[in-house]
C-alpha cells in the first residue's frame, strides 16, 4: 500500500483552519487506497477523518499575537523557535515511515527549502500554497520584508516539487506573472486546486431557530456571521457602518484574535453607535460547534483588503452548511462567488449598495432562496474533498511509491 504523509503544523492545535484543512486532505485521499499519515504539533484536537497521526511536542503553542511592533517580533521569535523543533521531529517521522511522498501545507519557506536540499527529496513532495502575496502590500512592513526575503526559497521549493497547488487563477497569476515572471520551471509546476470543504450530505445542518436559541441570540434579528481568526487583512468598518443604517441586522463575530483585537472592534462599534448590534465570541471554535454558528447565519460576510492573494477558508466552509456569502476583496474570491452564484459581491465602500443588498437578502422570495440553496449545494458537491482528492491524484498519483 502506498503511503502519503500530510505535513500540517496546526492540525492538532486550536488555531486557524489547519485542523479543518488537513482533515479534509486526509478525507480526500481516502478513496484511493492510500495509507495516510498526518504530522503536526502536539495538541488536543483530533483528526476529523481517517489517518495515522504523529504529534511532535513543540514549545510556545499559545499563538499569542499582541498588537504593535514588540508583539509582532515576539510572535515571530516564538514561531521560529517552534519551527526549528518541529522540523527535527518531522524529519524523524519522515525517515521512520520510509521517506514517503509528502504533501506540505502551511510551512516556513526557508526551513522547508533546507529540508529538501539536505535530504535529497526533490520530486518526492507537493505543496499547497494558501497565499501568494510575496510583495510589499502587507499590513506590516516586517511581514512584507520577510515575504520579499524568502523569494529564493519559494522558487527553490516550487521548482524541486513534483507539483505545487494554489487555490485560484489570481493566485497562480501573481506567482508566475509577477513574483517569478519568465520562470518557466515555476510556471510548469504551479497548478490550480479548488479549496475543498465537506459535502453538505456529511454535515449536521441545524435549523436557524434552533441555532439562535442555543447560542442565546435574539431571534427577532437577522445575523451576519464573521467566522475565524480576527486579522488586519479583513475589513470591519463597512459592517459597522451598515449596522448603523439598519435595525434589522446584528453581527456575530466568532473566532480568536489574531493580529487584530476585539477591543478595537468594540471601540469602533461605540464610535458608530452600534455596540448593542454586535455579538463577540472570542475563542477558537472546534469543528463540532461549526453547525451552530453557520446555522444561525442569514449570510456569511467575508470582506478582505484588495491586495491579498490568499483564500478564505470561511467562504469555502460556508457552502458545507448551505449558507450564502457576501464578499469583497481579491478576484479569486469574488469571481468564485459570482460565477457559482452562491452569494453576492459587494463594494464595501459603497454604503448605499451594501444597504440595498441587505434589504434584498431580508426580503428574498422563498423561490429565489431555494434556487440559491440549490446552487450552493451543487457547488459544494463539485468542490467536495472527494473531488479535490481526484484532482490532486491526477498530478501526484504517478509519484506515489
Ordered list of secondary-structure elements with their pairings:
Layout: E1 3-7, H1 18-29, E2 35-41, E3 52-56, H2 68-96, E4 101-105, H3 109-119, E5 125-128, H4 141-149, H5 151-160, E6 163-166, H6 169-179, H7 184-189, E7 190-192, H8 208-214, E8 222-227, H9 237-245, E9 249-254, H10 262-272, E10 278-281, H11 290-295, E11 299-303, H12 313-320, E12 325-328, H13 331-340, E13 343-345, H14 351-362, H15 366-382, H16 385-396
Parallel strand pairs: 1-2, 1-4, 2-3, 4-5, 5-6, 6-7, 8-9, 8-11, 9-10, 11-12, 12-13
Helix pairs in contact: 1-16, 3-5
Overview of this structure, please?
A seven-stranded parallel sheet has the order 3-2-1-4-5-6-7, sandwiched between helices. A six-stranded parallel sheet has the order 10-9-8-11-12-13, with helices on both faces. The model has no long low-confidence stretch (mean pLDDT 90). The protein is 45% helix and 15% strand. Helix 1 (18-29) crosses helix 16 and helix 3 (109-119) packs across helix 5 (151-160). The protein starts with a strand and ends in a 5-residue tail after the last helix. By secondary structure, it is of the alpha/beta class. It contains 16 helices and 13 strands. It folds into two domains: 3-196 and 385-399, Glycogen Phosphorylase B (Rossmann fold), CATH 3.40.50.2000; 201-382, Rossmann fold, CATH 3.40.50.2000.
Q: What is the structural class?
A: alpha/beta
Strand order of the largest sheet: 3-2-1-4-5-6-7
Radius of gyration: 21 Å
SSE pattern: EHEEHEHEHHEHHEHEHEHEHEHEHEHHH
* Arithmetic mean pLDDT: 90
Counting structural domains, the number is 2
Kindly report how far apart the N and C termini lie.
8 Å
Q: How much of the sequence is in beta strands?
A: 15-25%
